[in-house]
Task: inverse folding
């Protein structure tokens, strides 16, 4: 009898035990999360030594750099002429206090120091001022500035600061700038969360199709006479010849002075970005002369790397122009007569791209530049360093090692530091002479600690684009515990472009874009693919979906993932996820809404889900001018909210409430339509965060949890705490 009574109890205990075992097997352990945490970029960086050599040139033959050693930070002084290296833990002791590169505090926040270090320019009450750094005396240069009609205003729509947008003449006697007319431009509003009353933040933000948009009236200010000279030209649209924004470091983009400060060259770009016109102004009279003009079918681009110096140069001594154009489908250099505007000759040619002009030797008539795609059999995205004569002769490769090269040229262009690597090969830093001959080794990165922890290098691959013919390139990340006999869900980390791609650098990096290495460590295959619409290939490739931003290169991502699944049995093609931030957030939501039969799970952060509501600097370049049509307008097809009814998978949408780059309004438009169509989705708001919250530990953890639960089918480790940077 006792035994019979015991049977139900034993049965109950057995069932409970089995349920506990199942629960444990269905939960991704905290230990797995801890391994993933160690693969976050800020943890991996500490395990790489003797890398990231960044020269600080003292003169044409000497420079110093800091080196991350096992013993701590070390400073190294190099003498190229003597071929010597000297190390010290104390930078000041090594090179002297006056040479550390730390400028004396000019006493003005957001100021712009003059070349001779005597003056600092700044904005106050919508006017431009300068202060004498030595005496502290302030001089007001303009007096009639007003709100929305101020001088040197820095407002690029997605980026707005109090720094003045100016260009100092080389002799520090003149300033080129503008008066920005934003009167009538509609304001954007963000609400800062506070203890009691929320705080409103407003700024002028022009959107595609707006009739009132910012306009620049160019001026030159002579500090000695305090004279303001207004250039004799129409007001310019706030446009620049390469993406993105009005400043390159501390300089106004698309503006270059003559050495004597008597002339200034600049490029005017049309509102639709299709037309670029090079002009030269007399700094004393304001007379403007048009030098040359080019029209592009899609959008003009003077440099394929965003936020870099435009690749045009007016050579005032010889009255010639070095001009960059993609008129033959590839980015090349052309030599023009500066007086007549006539083409003298094409300097470079072929199915490859010039990237950055590093130096122009006018006396020797030689250009030094980086380029991609020229060397047969090499990854077409890897940078090399070249020289070429003005007439196109003697094009010479100066970096023979078949890697991605980062170049730092000495001030006199007699030497350069070459740091080269690839996805799987750690950085090697060497000093070379200007002919590309090695002078001495500097550093070789040490990744032994990475290897000891089981870190796996990305695996590069090539697949075909949607057309079945065009090669597209990607990298695949696998967990350290990878077992080829198992099946893994695959996640696509995306940034569609057009100004940059998903992979970004082709050089060695312990962690990849979007913390993809850490996500893979949880038990996923993570891929990054540069599809059509991203830069550094032909113009046809780059402009493949101009005017159709909803494309986002998604057909190429799908084609690539399918091909990888055919090659690798360990990829589970029935479990596909995607995540991305900003343009990648836009693409991720678009993927779940346009291709619900393929993408199962997505995490979309800070997405510009409707470019009609994004800054007009962006949409009008890549989608074109907004025009009314019978069905609405030319922006209707690219808006994610118009596809909300298609959602079938699991979608997590996140945004920052103070995002002044991608305004939350675009997210709310999508959210509203998802609600209207009675769709299940998840939403996460980050109070008072701006655009850069994607690597915040909480957001990283919630991204992990979402894919673990909905793509892997397991229970995430409960509220795992990731330590921040």
Result:
């Amino acid at each position: 009898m006792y035994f019979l009574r015991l049977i139900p109890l034993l049965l109950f205990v057995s069932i409970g035990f089995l349920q506990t075992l199942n629960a444990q097997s269905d939960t991704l352990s905290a230990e797995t999360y801890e391994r993933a945490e160690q693969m976050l970029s800020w943890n991996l960086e500490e395990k790489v030594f003797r890398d990231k050599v960044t020269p600080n040139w003292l003169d044409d033959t000497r420079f110093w750099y800091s080196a991350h050693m096992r013993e701590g930070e070390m400073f190294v002084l190099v003498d190229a002429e003597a071929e010597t290296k000297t190390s010290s833990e104390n930078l000041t002791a090594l090179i002297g206090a006056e040479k550390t590169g730390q400028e004396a505090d000019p006493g003005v926040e957001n100021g712009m120091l003059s070349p001779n270090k005597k003056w600092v320019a700044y904005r106050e009450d919508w006017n431009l001022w300068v202060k004498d750094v030595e005496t502290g005396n302030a001089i007001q240069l303009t007096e009639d500035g007003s709100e929305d009609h101020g001088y040197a205003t820095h407002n690029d729509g997605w980026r707005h600061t109090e720094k003045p947008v100016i260009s100092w003449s080389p002799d520090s006697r003149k300033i080129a700038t503008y008066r920005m007319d934003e009167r009538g431009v509609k304001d954007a509003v963000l609400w800062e969360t506070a203890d009691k009353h929320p705080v409103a933040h407003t700024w002028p933000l022009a959107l595609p199709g707006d009739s009132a948009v910012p306009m620049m009236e160019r001026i030159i200010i002579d500090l000695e006479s305090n004279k303001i000279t207004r250039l004799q030209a129409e007001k310019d649209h706030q446009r620049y010849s390469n993406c993105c924004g009005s400043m390159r470091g501390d300089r106004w983009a698309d503006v270059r002075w003559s050495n004597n400060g008597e002339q200034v060259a600049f490029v005017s770009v049309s509102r639709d970005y299709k037309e670029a016109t090079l002009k030269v102004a007399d700094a004393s009279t304001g007379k403007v002369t048009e030098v040359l003009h080019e029209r592009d079918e899609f959008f003009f681009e003077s440099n394929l790397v965003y936020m870099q110096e435009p690749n045009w140069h007016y050579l005032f001594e010889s009255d010639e122009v070095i001009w960059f154009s993609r008129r033959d489908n590839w980015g090349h250099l052309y030599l023009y007569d500066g007086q007549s505007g006539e083409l003298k000759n094409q300097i470079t040619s072929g199915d490859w791209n010039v990237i950055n002009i590093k130096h122009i030797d006018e006396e020797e008539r030689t250009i030094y530049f980086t380029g991609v795609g020229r060397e047969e059999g090499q990854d077409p995205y890897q940078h090399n360093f070249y020289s070429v004569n003005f007439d196109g002769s003697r094009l010479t490769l100066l970096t023979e090692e078949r890697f991605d090269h980062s170049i730092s040229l000495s001030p006199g262009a007699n030497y350069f530091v070459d740091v080269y690597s690839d996805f799987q090969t750690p950085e090697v830093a060497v000093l070379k002479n200007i002919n590309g001959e090695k002078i001495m080794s500097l550093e070789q990165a040490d990744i032994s600690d990475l290897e000891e922890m089981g870190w796996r290098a990305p695996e590069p691959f090539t697949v075909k684009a949607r057309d079945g013919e065009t090669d597209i390139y990607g990298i695949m990340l696998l967990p350290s515990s990878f077992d080829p006999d198992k099946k893994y869900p695959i996640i696509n980390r995306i940034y569609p472009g057009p100004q940059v791609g998903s992979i970004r650098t082709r050089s060695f990096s312990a962690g990849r874009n979007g913390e993809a290495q850490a996500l893979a460590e949880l038990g996923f295959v993570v891929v990054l693919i540069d599809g059509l619409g991203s830069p550094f290939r032909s113009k046809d490739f780059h402009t493949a979906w101009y005017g159709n931003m909803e494309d986002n290169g998604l057909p190429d991502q799908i084609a690539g993932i399918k091909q990888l699944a055919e090659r690798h049995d360990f990829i589970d093609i029935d479990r596909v996820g995607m995540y991305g931030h900003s343009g990648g957030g836009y693409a991720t939501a678009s993927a779940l809404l346009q291709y619900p039969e393929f993408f199962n799970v997505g995490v979309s952060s800070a997405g510009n889900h409707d470019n009609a509501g994004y800054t007009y600097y962006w949409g009008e370049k890549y989608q074109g001018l907004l025009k009314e049509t019978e069905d609405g307008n030319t922006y209707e097809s690219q808006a994610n909210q118009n596809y909300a009814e298609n959602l079938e998978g699991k979608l997590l949408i996140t945004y920052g409430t103070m995002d002044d780059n991608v305004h939350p309004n675009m997210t709310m438009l999508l959210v509203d339509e998802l609600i209207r169509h009675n769709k299940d989705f998840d939403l996460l708001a980050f109070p008072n965060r701006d655009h850069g919250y994607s690597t915040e530990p909480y957001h990283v953890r919630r991204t992990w949890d979402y894919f673990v639960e909905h793509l892997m089918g397991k229970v995430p480790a409960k509220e795992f705490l990731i330590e921040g940077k």
Summary: Residues 126 and 150 are 4 Å apart (CA to CA). Confidence is low (pLDDT under 50) at residues 9-23. The longest strand covers residues 571-581.
